[in-house]
Design goal:
This protein is mainly β. The protein contains three helices and twelve strands; from the N terminus they run αβββββαβαββββββ. It holds the Pfam family Flavin_Reduct.
Length: 161
């Protein structure tokens, strides 16, 4: 069996789209950075996001039953850094940068994200250290913000600039 270190090093060779996953409302909100947000199906529109159960936001997903998936552009790297917990920033303080809106579920959506998905939590499946969130997409927002922020080999990289 591969060791955790070998597996972690191997996974760093996969390019991931950087997304902010938001959850909660008002002062009882938080969020995190994910490179694991992908589509599950088109009919019905459904996504999958993998969240570490040790993340400070994890407990909020079941409490609120919604989440936002905000794909970031290269110009939004500082927002990604806030949501990764850089500098010890936690909870609602992570939302200090960016223009945030809500839609059907009440999840926070980054207004100028290239793509923002408003999701209702359908199911959480626990496996090992993570939960697989399955979300029904209730609303889709797109902007003309060009490019994508990716994560590869342990660092952020712009795509499409």
């Amino acid at each position: 069996m591969a060791s955790s270190d070998e597996f972690r090093a191997a996974m760093r060779h996969f390019v991931g789209n950087v997304s902010i996953i938001t959850v909660g409302t008002g002062e009882d909100r938080s969020g995190l950075v994910a490179t694991s947000a992908i589509s599950l199906s088109v009919e019905p529109p459904t996504v999958i996001v993998c969240v570490n159960r040790s993340a400070s936001a994890w407990q909020l997903f079941q409490r609120y039953g919604h989440f936002g998936v905000n794909s970031l552009s290269p110009q939004q790297q500082t927002i990604a850094e806030r949501f990764s917990g850089a500098g010890g920033i936690k909870g609602a303080d992570r939302y200090a940068l960016g223009n945030w809106i809500t839609d059907i579920t009440g999840a926070a959506l980054l207004k100028d994200a290239p793509v923002a998905l408003d999701c209702e939590l359908e199911e959480m499946i626990d496996r090992a250290t993570h939960s697989i969130l399955i979300g029904r997409v209730r609303a889709v927002h797109t902007s003309h913000n060009d490019g994508a922020l990716t994560y590869w080999r342990g660092a952020y990289h712009p795509l499409g600039h």
